[in-house]
Amino acid sequence: NFFSHGTDQGDRSLPQGNDESLEIEFPEDVLFPYYGATYSNLYIQTNGLISFNQGWPKPQTKNFLNTFPLNPDLDGDSTDEEAILIAPFWADVDTSNQRGAVHYRQTQGSEEIAHSSNIVRRNFPSFPEFMATWVFIVTWEDVSFYDHDTGSQTDPRNTFQAVLITDGKESFVFFFYDQIVWTSGTSLSGNEVTGLTDTSVHQAIIGFNRGNGYDSFIEGFPQNRLNLPQVSNINEPGSYAYQINKETIVAAGCSQGVANFVTFPAFGSILGGQKVFLYGPCWDGSNTLTCQFWTMNDQLEHLQTVNGTIEDQNTAYCVPNPFFRVGEVEIRVSVDGGNSFTQSGGYRILNLDRVDVSQKVIRGDASDHRWYTAGNDLSITWPEEVFKTTKVDIHVLNYDEEGACLAGRKFLLYGVKLYSDIHPLGYLLEADFQEDPFGWAEKECQAWIEREDAQQDFTKNLESCPCTLEQALADTARFYPDLNCNMFNDNECLLHGDVKHCVISIFPTADNSGSKCCYDAFGNLKYAGDYETGVTTIGSISMRAHIAGSPPYDAAGTVPMLSHAKADLIPYFHCCLLAGNCMKYLHRRPTADCYDYDTPKTAALFGDPHFFTFDGSNFTFNGKGDYTLLRHEKDSNFHLYGRLEVIKASYPPPYNSVGDIGGTGLTTVVMTERGATAISVMISDVTGIDIQRGKYDDSAGTVSEWSPVDFKDQTWLDFDDVGVSINHVEGYSRITSVTVIFRGSRIGVNITRGLNDNSFLAVSPILPPELMRDNTLSGLFGNWNNDTKDDLQNENGYPLDLMDADEEDIFQYASTWKTPSTTIFRTPYPENYKNDSSYTAVLIPPNPSELTSSEQQILTQKCADNGPCRFDYLVTRDRGLAEDTMSEYEAFQWALNSTQNGDVTDNPNNFVGTKITFECSEGLTLTGSVNRVCEKNGMYSGSEGINECIETPCGT
């Protein structure tokens, strides 16, 4: 299994000797992810080590080998060496006097890239499309140990290899062992002839050390290191594989006796039918596998039980039936025919509009009218890798809720299935439809109208649409883009025609209704009443059944997507597409008028932290530590915390004698709410932003059981109480923004990060209008009472008038919001982190005259006269930080301006003299003036009352 090695294969060699070290620089386009960080170089060590960030200190001592994790201060000099290590065989190796060699090479050659990609795919099945971009191979060949008694060519020799593989995002390492006959040198209590020791703690270490003092991984199998060539964690003797880019090391292969497994894929459709692979435990093919699916909320509910399949020792899978619900579920597995369920793993059910196209049947020319009648040639395609056979069965799933008992549904179709989109089954309808589609559809439409008019009016409690596209884009706490019709993808808006963008209300009403708001090319809200006769596409509509459904999804009208299709889409097909009665449909699905739209309120923190409060004040506070940014002490008990860390100098720091710039930046944000999942958002070298979820204990004020939130190909994940969405900049693989929405308080939080490698986080909380003057808001973002004089209070509630305060006053008041404990954060820091007396904040920036001429030019080009930007560049000389600050300032100002409604007396949004003409479609009568003109008094001319188009009474 060894990769080719040696000087004849293009390898270079480490100088021979004892405790040698050599730095290897990577190509400019290569960054290697390891333990949540990325590196542009590494060091190879004689002693069976690969390290990042520095060479290994000398001399080697047995204390270093006694333990993983290593203390960051390795040699006791009060300086953290941060031993960031990969250890394929850490022992006291000595290659002096021709006693072995250490060979290495890095490559991006096509042959080795292909081979490396294949072994990753084979041993990590959850990465079926992995394609390596860089490989590093280091081989310790025939190496001996330190202080052998003879130094002869017949002394014991070991041969092993480490192969590092990455695509820039995921990274893996393979250890290969050919011959292991010694485990220690004499300095580690090894026998001077054999190199063996009776003390197990002095055997060679195989594992990983993060360098922070508490994260590490030691391969404990086999316990006797002499057996390394005979055993494996991937079923190939002498071979071991690990995924190493995340904050925890993941071993490949299977393990005996483990209680938890990993599912792949991690997501699936509400209709099921997909193979869900279970990786981690070692499966016995003689066992009978049974899979149960359970909800993971407080009300545990058994959803279904299906038989599973064991393919081999590493691979088992089960295929779920339709769920008709979304959210997290737990898969419990039995290997004794269902008598006991001792192993479990997580799985997430997605709504149909979020299922990847690779898991769908695609209808050819889906908008073509041939799909509406029988007797036409129709084409469908599907991913060939799902079905290897040339013969497949095609079935039609008809969904109805009339008189249905949703809790007792049974399914006759088992096994792997793919589903198309939802569409009317015109090609299967009875003869009456085929002979007269218009007449048949008109009857169906009229029957729907009669049923609809007999039901309760659902439109009174809808979320009002934002009036403009800018408002809709900025109001991310209440609206999300329609996945089938938005400005960010190439999907054809089949229902809404030539609109530019549509958004959907995030929160269903109490009766599970929702608003869909669409905007034209000019950014104006397109009303349902804007319908033109003869056109089959429509504008903004209300939805009797929200697309997302409503928990617990067990009643008619609450099933995700399917209830919406039945209540809102199928009537559209009958009334608009086929019968030509679209106005009757739209009269019952009107636009949620923006007349009542209330804008949310936002605040911001960015740069060397600059705070902009809800009431419009701003100040700079570059404290160091963990702080309360916002708390809402009411039913929700919402808290938003931030961690500020010292900015590291990229040049000799001119202002701070201890070597740190006197400024800080936001590196971590934690959000909690009573009864809800806690969310942590943290800077990551690998993914840009790292997102984790945890279990919040409201009574103790602590968070535990943190686990990664892995989006894979998704952009939105919906937990029972929290929704999380992410965004990428086009052509940029890292996450650049996160939006978190808490359902209890309806508070949203936007977190962004710039594109520079050293960019910090910026955070903007978004408050719903009902929290204005709530009197329970506090923290560094203020209280939103429309009074700027008390925007900054200390934690005891005493205000500081920012107009009369100096920088020292602001710093002291803001410092009172330091949290008393770090147990709310995922990575607690030592107490001296928050109370480091060596840190001195720069409260007043240097005078620009102290800059060099080139720096003054950068200051002018990047910042002009923008205060926050100039402050950050003057303090740090970091043009990247200045660019980020300027960008975040402009984004915040855009958000502020976008979410404001017009004020006709103080700040007119319409030009005086603007003339508006109203007209109605054929068959409707206009109420109100035909023409109105915007006058100087901020009012429109014409009759009182609003303009509406109403149906013309019979006979008039």
UniProtKB/TrEMBL annotation:
UniProtKB keywords: Disulfide bond, Membrane, Transmembrane, Transmembrane helix
Main location: membrane
Start and end residues of each VWFD domain: 601-828
GO cellular component terms, A-Z: membrane
Signal peptide: none
Domain of life of the source: Eukaryota
Domain spans labelled AMOP: 437-589
Key word tRNA processing present: no
Alphabetized Gene3D superfamilies for the sequence: Complement Module, domain 1 (2.10.70.10), Immunoglobulins (2.60.40.10)
CDD domains tied to this protein: CCP
Subcellular location: Membrane
Location of the NIDO domain: 88-247
GO biological process: cell-matrix adhesion
PANTHER family: MUCIN 4-RELATED, SUSHI DOMAIN-CONTAINING PROTEIN 2
The protein, known as: Putative sushi domain-containing protein 2
Source species of the chain: Stichopus japonicus (Sea cucumber)
